[in-house]
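Hi everyone, sorry if this is the wrong subforum. Our group has a chain we'd like a structural model of before ordering constructs, and none of us has done structure prediction before. Sequence below.
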Amino acid sequence: MAKKSSTVYIEENFWDMISKFQAERDLSSRNDAIQVILSEWNILKQIDFNNIQVNVTLGDVSQVAKQVKNTEQIEEDEDQRIVRESLLKMEEEMPD
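Answer:
Right subforum, don't worry. Here is the predicted structure as tokens:
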């Protein structure tokens, strides 16, 4: 992949964040730090933390298992429970 040259103007606090990231990971340049930050961001934006567990290996994000049922399914199950309990209660209250 070819590299492109560009001039970027960002706030000083972002340069501080990039420099700190670069130092923590022993990266040779701010450009490398920015590339790693953007690569990590790209991986993170693909993850639905509410519904899946993920296995991240060398930038590959794959779905392992759903953690939470679909909200509609949960609501449907709750509605079915209420109907079932109401019918049972009606049956118990019926005169013989």
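For your construct planning: Confidence is low (pLDDT under 50) at residues 63-68. The chain is about 55% helix and 15% strand.
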